[in-house]
Amino acid sequence: MTVSNSYHSGFVALIGRPNVGKSTLLNQVIGQKVAIMSDVAQTTRNKIQGVYTTKNAQIVFIDTPGVHKPKTKLGDFMERSTYSALDEVDAVLYIVSAVDKRGMGDQFIVDHVLNKTKKPIYLVVNKIDAVHPNDLPAIVESYSQGLKFADVVPISALNGNNVDHLLDTLVSAMPEGPQYYPDDQVSDHPERFVIAEIIREKVFKLTRQEVPHSVAVDVTSVKTKDNGQVHISANIVVERPGQKGIIIGKGGQKLKKIGILARQDIEALLGSHVFLQLWVKVVPDWRDKSSLLKEYGYRNNDY
To answer: Which whole-number Å values give the CA distances from 106 to 8, 49, 64, 152, 163, in the listed order?
Structure first.
């Protein structure tokens, strides 16, 4: 696509500890759900690309998995996914939570990520709606030790407070460049990926801490019928039989509820009526099997 010389575009990575609100910010910026949200840490497993487009600019956001020390091959994938994002971007948003004190996890990010990039780093202090404004200077100071930020922007990703200012700041920092994606495209992921993420989000929401990190979703079929209805089949994959029972629930009620909530979001995504069929499948230790990680959508050049 040909654009004028005044058009600005670039790539921005979202880096931060698990559960600081990266996915919430991405969804707020894009204006619809492209990344799943949960209060369970390490919800994001792939680099979710969200595309923000205006008349004069386009920013491609990469929501990386929360930085943590890996314990499984899935964890290794998540860690590599985060680090590789820094090779692809023009700027880095270091997102922290105003309600959480700076901890060892933040020092890990500084040592292993931020100190290794030459890209401009913006400190984004999220969840400012939950603290008194007088507390902000001390919060910013605690994260500024040893780091030089291009700018500091306090926001509430959930409510949208100051997000427009953050976007204006980033647009002004982006180099002149082409429009990479069409005006109406909000993500580079195929529909099957987003459908799987929506289903996984509902599992997280309804099972809480009981099974989440052992769950993958494998969308096996997406077919549009002559009447316009979309028929979707998917497997919810867990590691142990007990987890299968938790997801199915008494009389199948929990699985039914997962399906209802997922179908509502998928219909909003596709703009069509959806018939959703879900099964629960036990695959022992799938998080430590490279072939299964690929099959379930966790692809990496290292595999």
So the answer is: 31, 23, 15, 16, 23
